[in-house]
Amino acid sequence: AKQDGRGILRFFSPELTARAKARLALEVELRHAIEGDELLLYYQPQTDLASGETVGLEALVRWRHPARGMIQPGDFIPLAEESGLVVPLGDWVLLTACRQIKAWLDAGLAPCRTAVNVSTVQLSRDHLIESVQHALRETGIPPERLELEITESFLMADREHAFRALAELRALGVRLSIDDFGTGYSSLAYLQRIEIHELKIDISFVRDVTTNLSNASIVKAIIALGHSLGSQIVAEGVETQAQADYLRALHCDMIQGYLVSRPLPVEETTLFLKRIGAT
Ligand code: C2E
Ligand code: CA
Ligand code: CA
Ligand code: CA
């Protein structure tokens, strides 16, 4: 029996134990997946709305489970964060993405930058700086080819710590992007203190931007705010030409979404880059 915060005695139900066991099993499997070769990165293009050029890619992790097939990040990143496995997983993502950037650079195919997602759990540990340094050193890629996507929630937790962590990352020369922008409450003053290259408007505002007036106002406000701070704006989850046209009219800089391409495995990304002739 365990005593919870309210002084009530609770007993583990068989159902709870089964769930805990399943979780533990998945955790063991995920640890194995990180050490083995079951993880892979897909890449989704980011397109400049004015020129139509592919200016960036975002790396998105997938887990090719030997029995369960392809598992999407939404189904294992939360577990990786709770268990701390997101730290070695994040190291793998960083190194793998940087090696791929190097390969595309060597082939004359690399777009301006490639972004990786960084979990708040990784950011709250000092280890991240070393991981980024290591990945840059090992691959020798120019730091500005790498972009880190940080969720807005990170900026809200411990502001002073977040500021120091971002300042250290900036000093390495990598680009910073704030993911899911608009869902949190990062203050203007805060964003002014550090150079943020990019804000990504959350998919929830983009989805019905052409029909929902209040979402359209939020998108307009984010674009104005971002531009006044010197950041570029990416709209994520753009699926229709109508959304793209609307966003272009609002002076949004870039779009990412199924309209241009779904996230693609490496070989298909390379073919995509060859087809568009990026340099
Ligand atoms: P996110 O960073 O906001 O990534 C965008 C998600 O939207 C991706 O889902 C992408 O496949 C999806 N998406 C792209 N275009 C469209 C579209 O037009 N319509 C719709 N409905 N969806 C679109 P995905 O790949 O399943 O990733 C989900 C989340 O998992 C990501 O959200 C990110 O928070 C997390 N994640 C993915 N890869 C990593 C990683 O390497 N490390 C960490 N820490 N988190 C990751
Ligand atoms: Ca980007
Ligand atoms: Ca992202
Ligand atoms: Ca998002």
From TrEMBL:
Residues 23-277 form the EAL domain. It comes from the Bacteria. This is cyclic-guanylate-specific phosphodiesterase.
